[in-house]
Each structure stands twice: as C-alpha cells, then as structure tokens.
Write a structure and sequence with these properties.
Two copies of one chain form a homodimer. Chain A has a four-stranded mixed beta sheet, covered by helices on one side. By secondary structure, chain A is of the alpha+beta class. Helix content of chain A is 54%, strand content 7%. The first copy, chain A, has two domains: 80 residues, Glutaredoxin (3-Layer(aba) Sandwich); 114 residues, Up-down Bundle (Glutathione S-transferase Yfyf (Class Pi), Chain A, domain 2). Chains A and B meet through strand 4, helix 3, helix 4 and helix 6 of A and strand 4, helix 3, helix 4 and helix 6 of B.
Chain lengths: 215, 215
C-alpha cells in the first residue's frame, strides 16, 4: 500500500494509526501542504484525490480517499485486530465519536478554512486563532461528555481495546495542543490518550516520527 | 424508533431517506433550530445529544447521533435493502462521497458556523453568503469529478441502485439550491438527483413533506 500523507495532517495521522495497528506495511509518500503553493493542489495529486487533501491510500490499484472511509475499508479488508466493537450500538457510538471529530471539529480548523479566513476575510492572527480554539475547545468538551455519558469508556473510548474512536481522538488532541486548547475540562480524554500513546501503533504514527517531520 | 429532526436540516434529511428506503417506520420529533433560541440547546435534548445538533435516533433504548453513524447502524441492523455495495473498494468510494459532503461541505454551511460568522465576526449578509456558496459550490464540483472519474456511476452514484452516496447527495443539492449555487458545472449530480427524487423513499424525506415544514 502507498499512503499520501503530511506529517502534521490529523486526517493522515488517523490512517497511519489504523495501518500500524493492523500491522500493515506501507510506503510513505509525503505531500507538503505548504511548499510550492501546496503540493496537494498539483495536477498529478488532484488526479488521485479531487478534493486536493491528504490522505490518499492506494491499495492494489484502488485509490481511496477520506480518512474514515479508508479506515472502514481497512477494517473490512483486514478485520484483525478489529478497530470496531462487535455490537451495532457500540459501533454506532464509536463512529459517532469519530464523526464528531471528523465533521464538527477538524473541518473548521483545517488549512483551507484558515487560509480563507486570512486571505479572503482578512482576519488578523488573534481572530483566526480564536476561531480555531473555539471550535476545537467546544468539541473536546462535547467529546468528554459523550465518552463519560456513554458508560462505555475503559482504558480506551470503548472498553479496554482501541477502536476508531481512539484512532480519531489522539490526532485531534495533538492538534488541540498545537492550538493551545486547555485539557483541564477533558481529563477522561487526556487519560485515554495516554493509554493510546503507550501503544507502538499510536506512537509510531505521531507527526514527529514521520519522514517529512519538521521541527 | 424515534427521530429527532428539523425539516430543513440536511443531516436529518439523510437519516429520513435511509429510514424510508429500508421501510422502517419512526416517530417524528421536531426540534426547531431557531425557535426559543434553538430547541436543540435545551437541557433535555442536550442530554440525548451533547453536540446539540439534529438528528438523534432512538432505537430500542439506544441513543444514536451523527447521521453517518446512524446510517451505518441502520445498514448493520437492517441490511435489506442495502445502502452499501458488496465490494470493499466500492463501499470505500460510496463512503468517500458521503464523507466529502459530511466533512468538507456541510460543516461549513451549518447554522452554528453561520451564526458565528454573524454574531462573533460581524460579517455582513453578502460576505456570509459568499462563504457558504464558496464551500458548497467547490464541493459540488469536486463531487461531480469524483463520481465521473470513479467510472462507477449509473442511474445513481454507484451503479443502478441507491447507496449512502445518494442518501447524502440529495440533501446537499437541496441546500445548494437554497444557497443559489449553480448546477451548471454538475450535470451528472443533477441527473442522479432526479433519479433519486423519483423514488418515494427520497421524495417523502424532502423538507417540504415533514410535519414541521414551513414555507
């Protein structure tokens, strides 16, 4: 498999964790989101991924986009070890956590949105940072509540083995730290992330461990 | 089952289509997103859905949130008629279409974002409308390209039976029309939507057909 990734992209980070957790080797193809006006916008990459975003996974000639769709594909094609629980309601909870991150938080912090805020709306740094922190901090508080109220959390978001909820949570928490969000209101999430980061699959997927990492 | 919905919410609309398509009866519980400062923010609703968004589906005591997680749950618990194709790569394509809508388009047009643009950033109507149209119009062009380049489109996004790609596409096109986006660059999507809207499952889920519809 070949993964088109950017070290700092949280959506790429999710897929790196899933691949590692399932012990699937892959070639790392770095796509720099800032250099050369954004390598993701170059014609050969857009031919793979019309959205001009990372990640893209190529597996056996199949070109796969959207991090959650890729994770579901990996789960279906390589079911062991599983990243979804056995029962439908638990699976719905795990997917709801992942989608709260993928649909309510990350889309508002991502590069093309912050570029629009800067280049089209001409908002200053402080206003843009307040925007990002607002959506990410609010989202974390909601996630903490979802996890606690589910009654499902163990060492991880759903019991004592990792699921896609954790795969999505850890990259979001790394982004949150970069945006200087407070972790005070979300002790459960912080505790779960610590368990995750003790696992090699998660640790090896971290931005600083990637071949294209920058200081 | 009980569905908490708002007639104009595209995420609610997706779940209404999926329920209808699978012939699953449900009670409609209207949550007005504007009245009383937003009924979705009232404590009894937030206890069900900490995100304070619609939809929420309650099935046999299970409280389910996030439209795609709900659709996946319905697919798992009521597999016939299916809304995902049989093969993993086709399923990944269908989910990528759904997630391009759910993660790249809808989050930037939704109520709480446009309220932030208005109430916090104090942007005028024209600037807010340009924001919404920008993300939705761009997204439609990308979807058109994804569908065409996949080589999978038939009467619907993936072959000749509806899938979750269509379930997500139709509500997004209704929103796009409301935001006065042009359908000129997306003839394939328009053609697919016409096929969808000829099906009772889609037609009955339309905003104007809901008990809480307003002119």
């Amino acid at each position: 498999m070949k993964l088109y990734s950017y070290f700092r992209s949280s959506a790429s980070y999710r897929v790196r964790i899933a691949l590692n957790y399932k012990n699937l080797p892959y070639d790392y193809c770095a796509v720099h989101l800032l250099k050369e006006g954004g390598q993701q916008k170059q014609a050969d990459y857009v031919a793979l991924n019309p959205n001009a975003v990372v990640p893209t996974l190529v597996d056996d000639g199949h070109v796969l986009t959207q991090s959650l769709a890729i994770c579901e594909y990996l789960e279906e094609t390589h079911p062991e070890p599983p990243l979804l629980p056995a029962h439908a309601a638990d699976r719905a909870y795990v997917r709801a956590i992942a989608q709260t991150i993928a649909c309510e938080m990350q889309p508002l912090q991502n590069l093309r949105v912050t570029q629009y805020l800067k280049n089209v709306l001409h908002l200053d740094d402080e206003t843009r940072n307040a925007w990002t922190r607002h959506w990410v901090q609010n989202g974390l508080v909601i996630l903490e509540r979802m996890v606690l109220e589910s009654g499902r959390a163990g060492r991880f978001c759903c019991g004592d083995t990792p699921t896609l909820a954790d795969v999505f949570l850890v990259p979001q928490l790394v982004s949150a730290a970069r945006f200087e969000c407070s972790t005070d209101p979300t002790p459960t999430l912080a505790r779960i992330a610590e368990h995750c980061n003790n696992l090699p699959a998660f640790a090896r997927a971290a931005p600083a461990q990637q071949p294209d990492a920058e200081p």
